[in-house]
Design goal:
The complex is a heterodimer of chains A (197) and B (777). Chain A is an alpha+beta fold and 197 residues long. Helix content of chain A is 22%, strand content 46%. Chain A has 5 helices and 11 strands, in the order H-H-E-E-E-E-E-E-H-H-E-E-H-E-E-E. Chain A has an 11-stranded antiparallel β-sheet. In chain A, strand 1 and strand 2 form a beta hairpin. In chain A, helix 3 (102-116) crosses helix 4. Chain A is globular, with a radius of gyration of 16 Å. Chain A starts with a helix and ends in an 11-residue tail after the last strand. With 777 residues, chain B is an alpha+beta fold. Chain B folds into 5 domains: 1-33 and 269-389, Multidrug efflux transporter AcrB transmembrane domain (Multidrug efflux transporter AcrB transmembrane fold, Up-down Bundle), CATH 1.20.1640.10; 53-89 and 177-250, 2-Layer Sandwich (Alpha-Beta Plaits), CATH 3.30.70.1440; 91-172 and 523-563, no CATH class; 409-453 and 630-777, Multidrug efflux transporter AcrB transmembrane fold (Up-down Bundle); 477-519 and 565-629, no CATH class. In chain B, strands 2, 3, 4, 5, 6 and 7 form a 6-stranded antiparallel β-sheet that branches. In chain B, strands 9, 10, 11, 12 and 13 form a 5-stranded antiparallel β-sheet that branches. In chain B, strands 1-8 form a two-stranded parallel ribbon. In chain B, helix 10 packs antiparallel against helix 14 (359-387). Chain B is elongated. The mean pLDDT of chain B is 84. The chains are: A alpha+beta (197), B alpha+beta (777). The interface between A and B is large, with 41 and 39 residues.
Chain lengths: 197, 777
Amino acid sequence: MSLSMAAVFDHPVNATSKQELSSVLLQMTRHDVVTGDFKQTKSIKKLNRDFVSTGTFRISKTSGIVWKTQKPFPSELTVSDAGISERNVNGQVRVISSNDNPVFAQFSKTIQAVFSGNLSELETNFNIFCEKTSNGYTVGLVPREKAVQKVIANIVMDVSENLEKVVITDGEGSPVVYEFSNQKTSNENSAEQPGAP
Amino acid sequence: MKVWALVHIVLIVLGISVPWKLDSNLYSILPDFNEIQNVSEAENALSNRTMRNITVLVGHENFQVARKVAVSLDSLFKDDPSLTETRLFVDENTLGETRNFLFDHRYTIQGDDVRDALSSGNIESLKLSALQKIYGSFSMVNLNRLEEDPFLLGESSFENYMKNSPMTSTHFSLRDGVLAAQDSGATYVMWNAVLSESVSSMASDDHVIGRVNHVLDSLEKANSGLRIAASGAPFHSYESSKEAKSEIALISGVSIFLILLLLLYVYRSALPIAVTILTILLAVFTALAFTWFVFGNVHVFTFVFGTSVIGVSIDYSVHFFTNWKSGVRNIRTKIFKGLLLGFLTTEFSYIALTFANFPLLRQMAVFSIVGLLSSFLSITLLFHDVFERPRNVKVKNNSLSIKNLPVSIPKKFNKCYSKLPTWVVVLFFVFFVIALLPGLCSLKIHTDLSSLYSMSDKLKAGETLNRKLNNIGISPNYFIVEGDNEEEVLQREEVLASRLLRAEKKKQLKSYLAVSSFVPSLETQKKTFDDAQRLLASRDFLTEIGVQKDSLFVEGLKGGAKYVELKSLFSENSKMLPHSFRSLLEMLWIGAVGDSQGKKYYSAVFPLHVTENFDARQMAKNLPHVYAVNKMQNINASLTKISRISLTLVGLAYIVMFIILVVVYKFTDALRILRAPILASFFVASAFGYLNMEFNFFAIVGVILTLGIGIDYALFFREGGRQKSVTTLAIMLSAATTLISFGSLVCSAFIPVKTFGLAVLLGILCCFLLSPLSAKR
């Protein structure tokens, strides 16, 4: 995590910043659907190695998130209120329904909350920090539960008009960086097909 | 007197020569099927463990209030000596511990998918799965140990654990260090506790459940809007036994008071009452001793129902003392024939029951045979010697003054019956039988114990909410697996598990809980480790994912397998086992049962969220030492079977009685004597049909009692003659004491007791009213 990103944790959200943050998130999520490209970088400190993958995404207010990894290994992940489904390179699909598995339902809710800027949902599970930057806001999230902190130490999001970057740092300090580009917005009735930005 | 003393001494000495044991195991009432007997003890051990768990859900619309109250509750009880443990806070290290443990055992503990891939040499699928975890999104897989575990088998093992763990299906999630779930606008915090083995299930003044209830009530009053949902068997046992204690005290107190008052009023002396009570106590003790000698133990059911039957012997005593009070001389000679026939007919019923293939029924029969024999001998031998002295009795007038009622009422009663013309009696019986038919047609002979227990609304709501939020979906059908050692149990579990997996694919169940899902058999672990050696040939995969050195990976595979053995699991050095693992295994592993010679090992396998298509018996079919268990269903079926067999055997006994009565009284009179108890029994059955009540085990025991007692009334009327007021008074007193003692049970809130009481009340009342028609006309 860069120093500038770490600095956000010196700024716990207060009444004023919360109001501003709400309006920024509201602005960010004003469209029903956001599509674009992503680049994911998993940095493993111990191995001194980065695992980079790229693909496309689609975030919809109604049907959830579709995450299509294209390189180096194609796969597809759908996260919605109904649950999580994964499709691997051989086309095999693994579905975990929210009804069958409340733990995954909670995970699915949290992921959706992070990418759709659902502040009230985020507040349930995270302590929120935020800092104004030249382009918008940097939002820091620290899980309320110590047990969860052992898996996810924190999440940092760069928000301007769109969600620009998300960094998820695990319990051992290894970050996963999601960078977004070519973002397009639309409303549900005019949106493209899922996963096809 | 010598004969009386000799018989009692022999029976009692035989009984006290063996160790005494009271059996309260419901399985003992089942027939002697070997398979059931084998698992009975294991099932009991499992039940005893689960029956000690309690759960309290503390809810409030404000989570912090619910949490604060749960913390108060925990702090009040965490050091309570009646509780072995309380659980509120979740250890933050639990998941990490489990993950590390499974990483260390990644080459021995794996789920089916990985085992199959290793076994078939399908290393490509393992590579693909690892690559997807490495490059895929939102997978919180720990990649820091890729050098040691490039195929991410540690993560696969952890995923398999999570898949099989009941915690994934629960609606509870971690919040502020505790487990919380939402329902109907409130957040509930879960608090669990386990009662120590020394805590009785019966309510007492300082019972821990009583104290928990008291604290919960106070917390509810102190925190407006607080919602409490308590669940667990100890709450039910406490509530039932607390109610039972006060109810039994009230019912028995009132009925004993009424009976004593009645007997005192008639006899005007405490002597007959004291002697009668002593006779019953002696009969119960003698019966108990001999039953112990024959069976090696006495079931609590035998004691309760057998004692009731022996209580019937109060009738013999009442007959004796009513004659004694009236100044009748040579009482024994006068009442002997009636008493002997009454005694023999009742004994025949119980002798017939000894042929049933139900240990409980045989035990109840032996208990009743010996108890009644003791009473009969006491009255005909002891009473004769002690009380047969001439007494001067004043002749009373026939006025209807209160003092004279014991004389005037029987006379009036006899007069009513003697005035009835024969055609009226015939017509009455015809209509009576016709009226019984619709009720008999709608009769349902069935015992369902679950329908006989009604819990309070509060407990019911607590159980429902707990089941909904925990959502584990444990079915009443489960399996008990047996083996000569731990390894054999696990191997047999794995065979069962493969069947359960097939059923899972057919959507007959969602999943199952089994020890072997978490700790496979040593055989499977060894095979997994051997198969994993194939990974060494795919070392190039490390280069593919950018891992430079393969030494750690090779060392892990060649450096000896780390097996998990159940044998050492619960020993002191099992501290290495993660807490979450240990609690799961403690729930499922029953362990060793039996003495050193016949020691066997057992575990339980629970199918979860089963559908109607799931057939546990079919699943266990042809699997030796795997038993499908449904305790409630087994008991219900057995009680229904006991009921049917009892009725059949008593029916056969009545045929034998009929033959004897034909020899003694001729055909028509024999028919008249048996008519009253038989019609009274049909009357009870018909009444249950009309009332749309299940004619269950408890009702049938009531009918058997009616058949046993009722025939005595008819015999005494036949012997004493309807005109003899002394006999009528004795029968009236007998019927009144039976109606008061058993009839009062109708007031019980406990459905089995109420049902039994209702059957006896209706049967005895009907029999008493029909019996005078058995007298000579």
